[in-house]
Structure formats: C-alpha cells, structure tokens
Amino acid sequence: ANADPQAYGIGIKELWEIDPAKHKPGLVIHTAGWPLKSDTYGGSFLYHMDNNQVVVGFVVGLGYTNPYLSPFEEFQRYKTHPSIRAFLEGGKRVSYGARAITAGGLLSLPKT
Q1: In 3D, which of 67, 72, 68 has the Cα closest to residue 57?
Q2: Measured between alpha carbons, how far is 103 from 10 in angstroms, rounded to an integer?
Q3: Domains in the chain with CATH codes
Q4: What is the pLDDT of residues 52-104, one digit of tens each?
C-alpha cells in the first residue's frame, strides 16, 4: 500500500569535450523511446556543462524481454541521431561508466 513496484535500469554515461562553437551552456535534452522498440522502456539525456563539456547518457529498463538487446549497442545507435551527433562530432570522449539504477520513482524505494 502507498508504494509502487521496484524497477531498475542500466544507465550508461559518457563525458565529452566538444567544439566550443557547438557548446550551449545550460542546454538540457531529454528523450524517451528511440532507438528502443515500443516494448522496452528507456530514454536518454544530454547536458551541456561548463568548460565545453557535455554529459550524454542512456538508460534502459532492466525488464526488457529481448535476449539480444544490448543497452551498449542501443546507446551507440542513439549517438548517431542527427540532433545528438551534431554536438559530438569532432569531440573527444573523456570518461565513461555504467551503473544499475532505480527507475521506479520515489514511491518505489524501500522504506528504511
């Protein structure tokens, strides 16, 4: 009662240094869906930080049923979208990482 089911995702994140001409400090882009199919939930983010840096990430819900789905490969495909590729082209990836994350919202976190 008063709780949602727990849900988890895999989040992949990269930090890029980009061309100063392409940098837009404070710009935030959030997406849902593509390149994932409609039966798999997930989304992405792109944040323009200070010093010509951009953080780009992709999250896939861990409830997916396709055994051939590769969150890493979907992230690579996401970065080919013209709206995202335009910022990253000519840039340099500085760091990267991945984590399992809670994805169900505040009401799905266990009470302590």
Answers
A1: 72
A2: 9
A3: 8-108 (3.30.9.90)
A4: 999 999 999 999 999 999 999 999 999 999 999 999 999 999 999 999 998 87
